[in-house]
Amino acid sequence: MDEALSEFVTIEEDGPIALLGLNRPSKRNAISDRFVEAIADAVAHVEKTAKAGVIFGHGPHFCAGLDLAEHSEKSPIEGIYGSRRWHEVFRMIERGRIPWVSALHGAVVGGGLELAASTHIRVADASAFFALPEGQRGIFVGGGGAVRVARLMGAARMSDLMLSGRVIDAKTAERWNVVQYVVGEGEALAKATSIAKAAAGNAPLSNYAVIHALSRIQDMSSEDGLFVESLMASFTQTSPEAKERLRAFLEKRAGKVALEKRSDGA
Ligand code: 1HE
């Protein structure tokens, strides 16, 4: 990874997974042009070896979104190029090689929420709050939020956030389908890490099907979606790895499905 860009991110390997830390805490991890390139480089680097990744923020917040200082100077065409680049980079996360889990705390706002929405599983701690203050800044979402955030919470709720400036807490974000887990303050990274390790233990082909087929099927007609599901089902089931895993279960060498003993479901 380019040394000059690594000032914005940290990468730590933890067995089969990698932890990618947004590292511009003095600006609340606000994403500048160079920062977005650092994320792209880090994702490409991590994908080469890790089987799953975690994205988290250093400092008191996950991410304050777009770097507003930088973007007050842009021309309309530069704005489009910038937004399209965010789309490319966040797409590397959403439709890359490995599953990503985001660990969210403090502000998860604007482009920070768009970044989180490009990951496959979101874990919030009790300090996390979510907003889309674009309306107040005179701008619009530009990092994929109109598609990904709207799909998570629904366009009506997203319109409410953007028009009213409403800020929601972690429990509401969970109720709105924005996050899948809410844990105690300071516990999001540990929870996200354990989820990423579980995902890393799956067959890579199954994970790839979840990342690529499941999300695409949502854009298809039911008939087409069911057809693609059958193709993926057959493709994965007949792989040598699946055969070995199925045999392992039947020979009682693999774990059973069991409920985790936590009353809060986290
Ligand atoms: C920033 C940014 C930023 C902080 N760009 N510099 N995002 C927003 O509209 C969110 C704006 N930020 C905030 O509301 C607050 O900063 C936070 C709630 C995130 C954090 O509050 P706090 O009290 O912890 O920190 P702070 O004192 O407000 O900020 C610390 C520094 O970070 C300060 O700079 P300093 O030089 O005065 O120390 C802030 O100016 C700076 N900072 N956020 C630039 N966003 C692809 S389209 C996406 C469109 C969007 O993302 S719009 C939403 C933008």
TrEMBL record:
This is Crotonase/enoyl-CoA hydratase family protein. Belongs to the enoyl-CoA hydratase/isomerase family. One of its GO terms (biological process) is fatty acid beta-oxidation. Transmembrane segments: none annotated. SUPFAM superfamilies: ClpP/crotonase. InterPro entries: ClpP/crotonase-like_dom_sf, Cyt_P450_CS, Enoyl-CoA_hydra/iso, Enoyl-CoA_hydra_C. It comes from the Bacteria. Keywords: Lyase. It holds the Pfam family ECH_1.
